[in-house]
Amino acid sequence: MYNSKIVGAGHYVPEKIVTNKDLEKIMDTSDEWIRERSGIEERRFAEMGVDTTANMGTKSAKIALERAGLTADDVDFIVFATLSPDYYFPGPGVTVQHELGCKRTVGALDVRNQCSGFIYSLSVADQFIKTGMYKTILVIGSELQSSGLDLTTRGRGVSVLFGDGAGAVVLQRTEEENKGILSTHMHSEGQFAELLCVKSPGNHTKEKFYKDMHEDYKNTSPQMDGQAVFKNAVVRFSQVIMEALKANNCAPADLDMFVPHQANLRITQFVQRKLQLPDNKVYSNIQKFGNTTAATIPIILSELWEKKGIKENDLFVLAAFGSGFTWASALIRW
Ligand code: UT7
Asked: In sequence order, what are the residues at sequence separation of 6 or more whose Cβ sits closer than 8 angstroms to the Cβ of residue 32?
């Protein structure tokens, strides 16, 4: 069995910055409320017709490949995580295969696990590499969520939290022992599916899908029971991190960096206190980008890559929780 290692990371965010003050102008909210409850100061919104979920993914993938010293022709497989695809079907993975200009007709898999999507995707890619089936895999998380948000007072409980952006990593085979992805851990609890979801268009009601699409406007924006999600998140984050550490005979004190999905700064701080991690071992960028769902973790990895914030042998834990509910972690030795 081989191991897989991240050999490049890149990200792309749209140029347009939307501050909390900008949101105050279009709904009944306040900069103070958003900062206090979530830590968010601003987020990026895509320009429709310019950015798409797939092309932001492609842009981040190009940077990741360049940093890895590789080209599109080295890519054996693509895994793409998103909850905001360009088309209801097909998923955006195939668009990346085309936009990158891959000479080979490499496979492209789309993963629908929302906030945990990137870690689920990393885990899938890791298994393909471990078995020797593929050598180099692009793993992408990208979201264009702003177009689906209810940016009125009615939707403020959700819409102030989310932003657009993309991140990608290149995962490659290594024969080094105890290096790269040490383990991944994934969970779900579907009884809570409707606590954070977009209901329409879908096949969950007796209404026809077509009718849903045309008449059920009220359900086409995300809906969330914020407090229930928060309560579950803090418990599951801690559990799944400890699961990863225990599986590798490690303790929180061994960690060099905790890379949490950026759902809420208060969730991150709660988990940080529980694990007794110092500030310099926890990465947060929710202040700048809000919650970019499947893209939060690869954007952080790319920012750390740029800042040369990753050293050989560093031990990282990635963890996420979100809609499904699904939650997941990955332990990485660089
Ligand atoms: O990444 C996916 C996973 N997502 C999460 O993990 C999110 C988890 N949940 C949360 O982060 C928090 O629950 C929120 C940030 C969504 C909300 O914070 P909260 O402290 O749970 O507030 P709340 O929903 O209980 O709302 C408190 C009050 C309500 O008013 P009343 O009923 O107390 O008068 C809301 O109507 O705040 C009101 N409110 C707002 N006020 C100003 C809700 N949204 C807003 C807003 N601006 N944007």
From this structure: none
Active site residue 261: yes
Task: Name the residue of 34, 36, 37 whose CB sits within 8 Å of the most ligand 1 atoms, as the mutation to test its pocket.
Answer: 37
Query: What is the three-class DSSP state of 146?
Result: helix
Using 50, 70 and 90 to split pLDDT, how confident is the model at 214? low
Q: DSSP secondary structure string, 28-81?
A: S--HHHHHHHH---EEE-PPBTTB-HHHHHHHHHHHHHHHHT--GGG--EEEEE
pLDDT, average across residues 123-143: 98
Question: So what's the pLDDT on residue 211?
Answer: 67
Write the residue with the smallest CA distance to atom 38 of ligand 1: 157
**Mean pLDDT confidence for 268-297:** 98
Task: List, in sequence order, every beta strand (DSSP E) within the chain.
Answer: 3-12, 17-19, 42-44, 77-81, 107-111, 136-143, 165-174, 180-188, 196-197, 223-224, 257-260, 315-322, 326-333
For ligand 1, say whether the CB of 38 is within 6 Å of any of its atoms. Answer: yes
Rounded CA separation 237/192 (Å): 16
d(CA 165, CA 173): 27
- 208 has a pLDDT exceeding 80: no
User: Does the beta carbon of 227 sit less than 6 angstroms from any atom of ligand 1?
Assistant: yes
Domains and CATH numbers, the chain: 3-174 (3.40.47.10), 180-333 (3.40.47.10)
Q: At what angle do helices 53-68 and 296-306 cross, to 10 degrees?
A: 30
- Mean pLDDT to the nearest integer, 168-188: 96
**Number of residues that make up the chain:** 334
Across the chain, mean pLDDT equals 95
Of all protein residues, the one whose alpha carbon is nearest to atom 17 of ligand 1 is 226
φ, ψ at 317 (rounded to 5°): -115, 130
**Which residue type occupies 310?**
I
The pLDDT > 90 percentage for the chain reads 91
Q: What is the mean pLDDT of residues 70-97?
A: 97
Ligand 1 centroid to residue 158 C-alpha, Å: 8
